[in-house]
Amino acid sequence: MQVWTGLGNPGAQYAMHRHNVGFMAMDAIAEVHDFGPVKKQFQGWTQEGRIGGQKILLLKPATFMNESGRSVGDALRFYKLGVEALTVFHDELDIAPFRVKVKTGGGTAGHNGLRSIDQHLGPDFRRVRLGIGHPGHKDRVTGHVLGNYAKAEIEPLSDLLGAVAAEAHWLAEGDDVRFVNDIALRLGDAA
User: Fold this and answer.
1) Site Stabilizes the basic form of H active site to accept a proton: which residues (predicted)?
2) Which pLDDT does position 191 carry in this prediction?
3) Which of 19, 79, 118, 145 is 20 to 30 A (C-alpha) from 96?
């Protein structure tokens, strides 16, 4: 079993924030792969399903971003899984908007959700980094991250989430490079 966690903040007022793109990815994957109903557990919302031959638990922590590690830790302990079974989907300032990169381990780059998971489980989990771009000056970062996607960004966002969901089988199989490359092809980008 794998645990895929999307990071975001709970509540309708945060639904379209760039910081919630991890939640959006979980919803897209659940819909495309016909996951089961939403359950309230592990201080969050979960959905179970299969992608290819892999059993996947999708988790959206309800703890707010800076406490995400509590929810994720609860899920891994319940299933007796190590950090190698965890994939975290999150917004990434240092990647151009609507681009995707995957890596295992690394720092938190000031991301409170990653920092919380790192504190609870260590840094060696896989990350699906969903680009939101940098607003250009550090004083504008908070407003950018906690701002809603603009009307003009909705179509590329929808395309990105659709591509992530459509290519998720590569991620489930552990082929991170193919996952990223096929998303780029689907979106008409060079990888």
Assistant:
1) 91
2) 46
3) 118
